[in-house]
Amino acid sequence: MTQVEDDIVTEFPLTIYINEEEFATMVCTPAHLEEMVIGFLASEGVIRFQREIKNFKIDEEQGFAYIEIEGKINTQRDFSKRFIGSCCGKSRQFYFQNDVQTTKTSTSKTTITADQCIKLMDMMQATSHVFKGTGGVHNAAICTGDEMIVGRADIGRHNALDKLYGHCLLNQISVRDKVLVFSGRISSEVMTKAAKIGVGIVLSKSAPTDLAIDLAHDLNITAVGFIRGGSFNVYSHPERIHQ
């Protein structure tokens, strides 16, 4: 038996208070916490713009985030309540009630080439230093067709996406013409998050689920999976991918 030192990813609980009332606890990787909280609040429909936040403070030592926003929020609202209903007037269904109010159908006109799909995935993977060191995080990036604008990592795939969303809100980056590149499986949760962010193309090195593909069709999002070794599969709206 040989003893060696190994890098281990940090798991960190962060409890969010809004207007002095407890709202949610997130288990995350303790980096880019302000971005994550702002992206999460926007994703949940609590805020639409960063300017709606009057005060923001994070106590990393104790694991608390204190946010004061304009107006009131119903902290008793059940954000995880099951919802059965149509998606964008069509046949598909969301799992959760709040997603109906915050998920947007993409209006993106952006197109990219097959080579760009592969290069963007390689670019994100090459900059995923936390994953290389620990193997314990999900990676995600917001890109143009030619370059990566920002990349984030977290133990939770939804947290990584919230960090991207928060970064774009804080820096007033328009995402309608951007591409979301993701390291993991495209679940319905990931597809819903992508729609909330507002991108029209989602690239992944892994597979989508059946519900994710259904949502992608209905939300006008191009879903590309299994980007590996110079090939990939396009599951929805292939008109955005060309030679």
Automatic annotation (TrEMBL):
Keywords: Cytoplasm, Molybdenum cofactor biosynthesis. Pfam families: FdhD-NarQ (PF02634). The keyword Cytoplasm applies. It is found in: Cytoplasm. The active site is at 88 (cysteine persulfide intermediate). InterPro entries: Cytidine_deaminase-like (IPR016193), FdhD (IPR003786). Gene3D superfamilies: 3.10.20.10, Cytidine Deaminase, domain 2. NCBIfam families: fdhD_narQ. Belongs to the FdhD family. Required for formate dehydrogenase (FDH) activity. Acts as a sulfur carrier protein that transfers sulfur from IscS to the molybdenum cofactor prior to its insertion into FDH. This is Sulfur carrier protein FdhD. It comes from Thalassobacillus devorans.
